[in-house]
Write a structure and sequence with these properties.
- The complex is a heterodimer of chains A (324) and B (48).
- By secondary structure, chain A is an alpha/beta fold.
- Chain A has helices at 81-84, 98-107, 124-136, 151-160, 173-180, 184-196, 215-229, 254-266; strands at residues 3-6, 14-15, 26-29, 32-35, 43-48, 62-67, 112-115, 140-145, 163-167, 200-207, 235-239, 272-275, 285-286, 293-298, 301-305, 307-308, 311-312.
- Chain A has an 8-stranded mixed β-sheet with strand order 5-6-7-8-9-10-11-12.
- In chain A, α7 runs parallel beside α8.
- The N and C termini of chain A lie far apart (53 Å).
- Chain B has 48 residues and is of the alpha+beta class.
- Chain B has one domain (1-34).
- Chain B has one helix at 7-36, and strands at residues 38-39, 43-46.
- Chain B is rod-shaped and about 65 Å long.
- Classes of the chains: A alpha/beta (324), B alpha+beta (48).
- At the A-B interface, β1, β3, β4 and α3 of A face α1, β1 and β2 of B.
- β4 of chain A pairs antiparallel with β1 of chain B.
Chain lengths: 324, 48
């Protein structure tokens, strides 16, 4: 039987007959690479879009969120490891062809469909088919991804995506190798390409104590962001919670997140948020020109929105994002 | 009441046991593989 090479992500898995890729969701079956989870999501929820988190993309709206089993990264701190590190046949799955997903999204008054929880790259074909039908029904498509994908499929994805949140997990190759079992170069390339293509982009950095929480880490990451993406890409520094294989670590101290935010703002990044700390002022959006509060959030709820059109209500400065 | 089970009865019971333990739990998986896979878009067949 013929060997195949997967060209979807930088791992480039070469698979003999009945061998499965590193992501667990692709297999060589009779000389053809087959995705094993098409139309079989194992997690389906209606979430506020702030949960993804997207803070500059249709605030206050609902997102029909789904995932299939499998992931091409293996983060030691994965919050969803029960599905991301499982084979598709070992999770409890729903039968949900793309058309059904759109009907559910419409029925639940969702403005977006989010491929999230695990890794959309591993269910690329399913996500692409959903996106195609979603656009025909005025529903927008968003991905929550680690960005570990090859250029060619990413270019195709940019053709059907409206917003992408990339988990920019660390700024060193060592961190990526040791904690995520991936490599940083392809992630950086993916982030730059998404920005170049004009897709709305937000970044999240989960701050893990002792792994990526030094001033040097924050500085280096922010310098890279400003240099390659500019100052207007929102950056979220999120609190780590001990789980999976890093239960030995404490949660991220709030002071560390505040330090990260201060460094990012001092480097000129205009929209810097603190994640997983409800009621902190770092959840709110402030106008970079007049410094007034323009979006107030409590948890995942928008409690105040002072954006008119796409501008600050107080000083008319344009705020980047998609607001209506 | 205390008669020994015959060889035939033993084999039948062992067969049923094996069916219940090893085959039944995997029926769902077999069905899964038949129904839900779809050819991937980005791959190439390797020569040799």
């Amino acid at each position: 039987m013929k060997k195949v090479k997967c060209l979807l992500c930088p791992r480039g898995c070469e698979l003999k007959e009945l061998e499965r890729g590193n992501c667990r969701s692709r297999m060589n079956i009779r000389g053809k690479l087959q995705t094993l989870a098409y139309g079989k999501p194992c997690a389906v929820h209606v979430d506020p879009i702030e949960k993804k988190p997207f803070y500059h993309f249709l605030p206050g709206s609902l997102s029909f969120s789904l995932a299939t089993a499998g992931c091409n990264l293996h983060c030691l701190y994965c919050q969803n490891w029960e599905i991301s590190q499982s084979n598709p046949e070992n999770t409890v799955n729903m039968d949900m062809p793309p058309e059904q997903a759109i009907l559910e999204a419409i029925g639940n008054k969702c403005r977006t469909i989010a491929c999230t929880y695990s890794e959309p790259v591993t269910f690329f074909e399913y996500a692409a088919d959903i996106a195609d039908i979603a656009h025909k029904n005025n529903i927008l498509n968003v991905w929550v991804t680690a960005g570990y994908i090859n250029q060619k499929p990413l270019e195709e994805a940019c053709g059907f995506l409206d917003a992408v949140k990339v988990d920019f997990k660390g700024i060193t190759e060592d961190f990526y190798q040791n904690v995520t079992r991936a490599s940083i170069g392809p992630v950086m390339n993916a982030i730059k390409l998404i920005k170049e293509k004009g897709i709305w982009l937000e970044l999240v950095n989960l701050v893990v104590p002792t792994y990526n929480d030094t001033e040097k880490d924050f500085s280096k990451m922010c310098d890279w962001i400003v240099e390659n993406l500019g100052p207007d890409v929102p950056v979220h520094f999120s609190k780590f919670w001990p789980t999976y294989q890093l239960k030995n670590l404490p949660p991220t101290p709030e002071d560390t997140l505040i330090l990260a935010r201060n460094i990012a703002m001092s480097k000129g990044i205009n929209y810097v948020y603190i994640g997983n700390v409800p009621e902190h002022e770092g959840n709110n959006t402030y106008c970079p020109v007049c410094k007034k509060l323009i979006i107030e959030r409590l948890g995942y709820t928008v409690t105040q929105n002072n954006i008119t059109g796409s501008s600050c209500k107080f000083c008319s400065a344009k705020i980047p994002g998609r607001w209506d | 009441m205390d008669r020994k089970i015959t060889r035939k009865e033993f084999l039948r019971m062992a067969g049923l046991g094996a069916f219940a333990i090893f085959i039944l739990p995997n029926v769902k998986k077999l069905k899964f593989f038949k129904k839900s896979y779809k050819e991937a878009k980005y791959y190439k067949t390797l020569a040799g």
